[in-house]
Amino acid sequence: MAVPNYLKYKEKGKIAVAQTDIRIIEKQINIYAIDTGELPDSLNDLSIINTIDPWNNPYQYLRIDGGDVKGKGEMRKDHFLVPVNTDYDLYSMGKDGKSQAPFTAKVSQDDIVRANNGGFVGLVSDY
Predict the structure, then answer these.
(1) Domain 2-126 grouped into CATH 3.40.50.150
(2) CA angle 8-11-17, nearest 5°?
(3) The pTM is what?
(4) Where are the domains of the chain?
């Protein structure tokens, strides 16, 4: 009985770490944008050390505003298939390490995302 509770607690901790990491990366992106006048093309443009999520997968970033987004296929989309950000997408693919653009996809439910241009950071399933 204690093991399942411990595993749930551990997973909640990883989610909290991912949310914090996303907020830290978001701040670094904002600093970069202030310094250069534009958003970075990739996370490699930032001077941050950790771009790996708690499940050992790289955080995902897509520049939307002023970027070279070909179509809307890669942009994260809500349950109505409307893009959730107008500036950039930043997210962890979560525990399963898999993701698809629409939040309605089953593999996206455990993703930790930045949405509403930073107004929301959390699990897709909570959005």
Answers:
(1) no
(2) 145
(3) 0.89
(4) 2-126
